[in-house]
């Protein structure tokens, strides 16, 4: 096939792929809002399709089931979080607490995403929820990452050596998730970022070498 014909053949395929990716992104955005508002159980593929402005058959061309769509949104979120943490230089110790503060600042600007996380994690403790495996793996993964950060604080001399990094990691995660849930329920009263800042300051004071 001449080079000109090969290029002409490739261009429609590339265009079609780009259109398909944009449609998938629109579907994920609509599904995020649907799941955040109604939870997994209360959401429907029909309503998601309506939000996007396509037929349900068109929606299922990209995502065969509600399970697949939900898990893909969650996986995409995790991949983005991993990339951001790596780009930040894998912070440890006090630097990681500051990094987590910035994450909460970002969550305030994207409440649908924060709400989706809270709803899905809450629902995932129910029997045979499609996100149950994701939720377990997520907590294992972030606990490992947070413990790595605490150990880094010990190695740098910021934190005492007699603390349990895994225990401290679970406590930090619990505070972040708990504050975020309270903020979602009562955003007018709860200052998510300021409350975490106060907690982080107290934690650093408690963990420091001369504490």
From TrEMBL:
DNA-binding region per UniProt: 44-63
Organism superkingdom: Bacteria
Listed GO MF terms: DNA-binding transcription factor activity; transcription cis-regulatory region binding
Boundaries of every HTH tetR-type domain copy: 21-81
Keywords, in A-Z order: DNA-binding, Repressor, Transcription, Transcription regulation
One protein family per Pfam: TetR_N
PANTHER family from the UniProt entry: HTH-TYPE TRANSCRIPTIONAL REGULATOR BETI, HTH-TYPE TRANSCRIPTIONAL REGULATOR RUTR
Protein's recorded name: HTH-type transcriptional regulator TtgR
């Amino acid at each position: 096939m001449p080079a000109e014909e090969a290029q002409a053949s490739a261009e429609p395929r590339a265009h079609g792929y780009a259109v398909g990716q944009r449609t998938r992104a629109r579907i994920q955005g609509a599904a995020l809002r649907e799941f955040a508002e109604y939870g997994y159980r209360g959401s429907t593929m029909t309503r998601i399709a309506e939000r996007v402005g396509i037929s349900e058959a068109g929606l299922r061309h990209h995502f065969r089931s509600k399970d697949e769509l939900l898990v893909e949104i969650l996986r995409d979120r995790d991949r983005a979080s991993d990339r951001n943490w790596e780009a930040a230089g894998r912070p440890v110790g006090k630097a990681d607490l500051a990094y987590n503060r910035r994450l909460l600042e970002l969550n305030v600007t994207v409440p649908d995403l924060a709400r989706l996380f809270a709803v899905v994690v809450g629902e995932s403790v129910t029997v045979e929820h499609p996100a149950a495996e994701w939720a377990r793996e997520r907590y294992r993964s972030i606990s490992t990452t947070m413990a790595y950060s605490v150990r880094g604080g010990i190695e740098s001399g910021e934190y005492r050596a007699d603390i349990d990094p895994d225990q401290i990691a679970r406590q930090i995660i619990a505070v972040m998730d708990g504050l975020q849930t309270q903020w979602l329920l009562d955003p007018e009263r709860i200052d998510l970022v300021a409350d975490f800042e106060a907690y982080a300051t107290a934690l650093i004071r408690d963990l420091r070498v001369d504490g």
